[in-house]
Amino acid sequence: MSTQTPTARRVAAVTDRRIAGPDAQVDNKALVLEPGKPARHDPFLLLAEDWFSTVGFDWHPHRGQETVTLVLEGRAEHRDNRGGHGVLGPGDAQWMTAGRGLFHAEKAYRGEPVHLLQLWINLPAAHKMDEPRYQDLRADAMPVRREAGVEVRVFSGRSGDAVGPAANVVPVTMADATLAPGAAYAQEVPADQNGFAYVIAGSGRFGADRTPAAAGQAVHLAPADTGADGPAYDVLDIEAGDDGLRIVLWTGRPVREPVAHYGPFVMNTRRELEQAVADMQSGAFGEIPTT
Ligand code: MN
User: Fold this and answer.
1) How far is the CA of 241 from the centre of ligand 1 (A)?
2) Is the pTM for the entire model greater than 0.85?
3) Which of 99, 101, 25 is nearest to 281 (CA)?
4) Taking the domain 11-282, which CATH number applies?
5) Does residue 2 register a pLDDT over 60?
6) Ligand 1 center to residue 124 CA distance, Å?
7) Is the pLDDT of residue 48 over 50?
8) Spacing, Cα 262 to ligand 1 middle (Å)
9) Which of 45, 59, 92, 149 has the smallest count of CB within 10 Å of its CB?
10) Per-residue pLDDT for 1 more than 50?
11) 175 C-alpha to center of ligand 1: Å?
């Protein structure tokens, strides 16, 4: 082990979620990472927080990205046109790699209210046409890092000795951390990854400058300043306030490619978006089930 003290990551900005309100699908929606600014959040494209019940997201296509869904309250029911079906409860996540294309539906189980987060991760050009893939990541099956007053459930990447099981295309760290009032820990962040912590409950202080943030805010990490020959990881210091803290931390290695985005399709060029629509219409994504 190196005796070198890891560099402490700094916070670049703290942003408020934007409440978008109800629409035809949802009872309420907030945007934590706004779409349309891919360079700002690379490799992440958007993070939406949704509350829905009777309607939800009926059959729709995707191509060219991954969607990661984390249920906060209630149950979400998922179906796809490749035979996939499942119900996710609180703390469960689903990691869908849309790849070359599929149809799926995301609904509230039995029409009861569900509250969830959905993150979109860009896929590099070399992987946009990969075979679609689902990973069910059940909360009770995830490795947990435990320290005094700290519990970190690791879905992807690592925290301490806990290594998440998610297979990655773009390397991503995803951890759901709950801290008792006043508790603290240091979350490793690969030096080549950028990202954010979204505060789900409570409040805390983050990073080298102990930047404060509270529920509904996203804490955006500055790039590592470890240098090209520096250590592979630095650390984000996280400390809970008097009311405790729950965050989801997402960091990832930037893709650094042009992004062309149209609805549920995320490609590199406008021409590829047109091809995605043509492929979907000609049946290359398969058919929408009729039952
Ligand atoms: Mn979807």
Assistant:
1) 35
2) yes
3) 101
4) 2.60.120.10
5) no
6) 19
7) yes
8) 13
9) 59
10) no
11) 22
